[in-house]
Design a protein that fits this description.
369 residues; alpha/beta; five-stranded parallel beta sheet; 16 helices; binds adenosine-5'-triphosphate; binds magnesium ion
């Protein structure tokens, strides 16, 4: 029997829970011509939300999705913009090649067949000049006008832009995008600090360009109903108490909720009692263990490590004098510095560890700190 719970891949359709408010809000901003910056902690469901949005509104708007993950060179990024815009605007029908060829005329880009047999777009000869860059960044507006429909360009993992000659490129992007009448941009990413600098600080290249929107956990009730109905749909049975317990363990975090439910379904299609849920949490933590070991080892300072163990074992406790003494954390100003650093890395937020299973892992490990 196929396990009905998916994690680690983008989900949509029947695997997608709730987010009705966010979907409406995004559609409203797009209709109003307002660009959006969508941010959240890792694995909170940004890519899934944007996929669901593009499926639901595919008749109304043309969606272009550009994933910046792993792109480190400016020219590869520009090629991705040109390729994905051409593909979304003209599809992959036979007419694709000739339409795209006309569309790209005047830029220094040409159509190529990639090693995997796909049609791609590539700069030829030299590195792109300033006018090539402007030409590429104007392609979405050109496509929207030609197709007489609003285009929505989604930049997923947008923070990666910082690794490609950041500021100059960002400034050029903004100078083109702000003239576009028929395109709305959605910038999505998980490095909140970086995105904040770009979009919300006065010196940021995209200051006031897009409306910030933060994605949080999914409401428990909706997720519980989903878990119960998926168990049932797959011939099993999950009672309300067990569903509630899963949500308590995952703190409503979509990725970990799906992962724990996945493990639980493998353990038993008709789980009973707390023991099965506890076991599924253990299995989920085991799966994440290599990533947690890596994260732990990347935190070099014993003081930082003690801090992480401290907040894992005493969540919500005020970081006062006694807490500092008990965990040998030196002083309030040391805590402040540690928090700033761990927060910038996305490991903690407002003094709490973001990943609920990392907390379980931390409580499990024995360290001689
Ligand atoms: N609306 C949803 N309903 C059900 N499950 C969801 C939903 N959104 C996300 N998930 C779960 O969370 C996982 C991560 O989702 P997704 O990849 O969309 O997050 P993300 O924020 O884009 O992550 P990253 O920061 O790694 O890019 C999915 O594989 C799925 O298990
Ligand atoms: Mg994503």
């Amino acid at each position: 029997m196929v396990n009905p719970f998916k994690y680690g891949t983008v989900v949509s359709g029947k695997d997608f829970v709730d987010r009705e408010g966010e979907l409406k809000e995004l559609a409203r901003e797009i209709r109003g011509g307002k660009s959006v910056v969508l941010y959240s902690n890792r694995r909170m469901g940004k890519s899934s939300l944007l996929l669901e949005l593009s499926k639901r509104h595919c008749r109304e708007f043309i969606f272009v999705r550009i994933d910046l993950y792993g792109l480190t060179e400016q020219s590869r990024f520009l090629e991705a913009v040109a390729k994905e815009t051409s593909r979304a605007a003209f599809g992959v029908a036979e007419k694709f090649a000739s339409s795209v060829w006309k569309f790209l005329k005047g830029t220094n880009l040409r159509l190529v067949v990639t090693d995997s047999g796909e049609l791609g777009v590539e700069f030829y000869g030299r590195e792109p000049s300033t006018s090539d860059v402007a030409g590429v960044f104007d392609l979405p507006e050109k496509a929207a006008r030609r197709r007489k429909r609003r285009l929505v360009v989604i930049f997923d993992e947008f923070q990666e832009i910082a690794y490609m000659d950041g500021v100059g490129l960002l400034k050029q992007m903004r100078s083109r995008f702000q003239n576009h009448q028929n395109v709305v941009y959605v910038f999505s990413g998980s490095k909140k600090h970086l995105l904040h600098q770009i979009f919300e600080e006065r010196e940021g290249a995209f200051f006031k360009f897009a409306r910030p929107m933060e994605l949080d956990v999914i409401p428990n009730k909706q997720f519980e109903d989903f878990l119960i109905s998926r168990f049932k749909g797959a011939g099993g049975n999950l009672d309300r108490a067990a569903a509630r317990m899963i949500l308590r363990k995952s703190k409503g975090h979509p990725y970990y909720t799906q992962q724990i439910a996945h493990e639980l379904f493998d353990i038993s299609k008709t789980p009973s009692g707390e023991e099965d849920v506890e076991e599924s949490v253990r299995a989920a933590v085991d799966h994440q263990s290599p990533a947690y070991t890596y994260m732990w080892e990347s935190v070099k300072s014993p003081l930082h490590r003690r801090y992480l163990k401290a907040i894992a074992s005493e969540p919500g406790v005020v970081h006062g004098h006694e807490f500092i003494e008990r965990h040998r954390l030196r002083s309030t100003s040391h805590i402040q510095r540690i928090e700033n650093q761990l927060e910038a890395r996305g490991i903690i937020e407002r003094g709490e560890i973001v990943d609920p299973l990392f907390v379980v892992w931390l409580l499990r490990i024995k360290t001689g700190l």
